[in-house]
Amino acid sequence: MNRLQKLTAVDTRIFYWCNDLHRDLGMAPVSRFVSRLGDGVLYLLLGLGLALWEEELGLTFLEVGLLAFALELPLYLLLKNTIRRDRPCHRLDGFRAVIEPSDKFSFPSGHAAAAFLFATVLASFYPSLALGAFVVAALIGLSRILLGVHYPTDIAAGALLGICCGVFSLHLWEMF
To answer: Which residue ranges does UniProt annotate as crossing the membrane (predicted)?
Structure first.
């Protein structure tokens, strides 16, 4: 068994363990709610709200956030449509997801990418919110595993993509 096969086997075991625990605890409604936090609308509303009502940094936060998402989204789509990893609910025999995913492929997780991007930019402008932002981002990522639409490595890759795009955007903004 090569390294990729070993990683896939571990990824699948962790996925099943999370889903078994999730079903035993009856957490589907909570997972759905947390996952919806990462659908994107909340990021835009928070960004617009800060731009309108927080005079010192709000508008700059919104601008950097929009730049970060403008970089992240095409990269996310390129990766997802190049790698084309089937979602666990489409690949694993006898497994059924709690929700129907919006597209066919799972790697990387767009919800995780967006959540960690938002947390990275928010933490840079409002350090006192950093811990809460990253906890929410992690919960959004975990919810996607628990709902049966992502493997743990999809979440890790999405988190890495989001953090990198957030940091890159912050540095790019400082240059101009």
So the answer is: 33-53, 59-79, 114-143, 155-173
Instruction: Say what the pTM is.
Output: 0.92
Instruction: Measure the CA–CA gap between 84 and 51, rounded to whole angstroms.
Output: 37
51 contacts 59 by C-beta, under 8 angstroms: yes
What DSSP string describes the chain?
A: --HHHHHHHHHHHHHHHHHHHHHHHT-HHHHHHHHHHTSSHHHHHHHHHHHHH-TTTHHHHHHHHHHHHHHHHHHHHHHHHHH-PBPHHHHSTT---SS--SSSB-SS-HHHHHHHHHHHHHHHH-GGGHHHHHHHHHHHHHHHHHTTS--HHHHHHHHHHHHHHHHHHHHHHHH-
**How many residues comprise the chain?**
176
Count CB-CB contacts under 10 A for residue 21: 11
Tell which residue, 155, 23, 24, 153, has the closest CA to residue 97.
23
**Which tokens belong to 125?**
């402008």
How far apart are the C-alpha atoms of 23 and 167, rounded to whole Å?
A: 36
User: How many degrees, rounded to 5, is the angle at CA 154 between CA 123 and CA 65?
Assistant: 30
For 49-74, what is each residue's pLDDT tens digit? 999 999 889 999 999 999 999 999 99
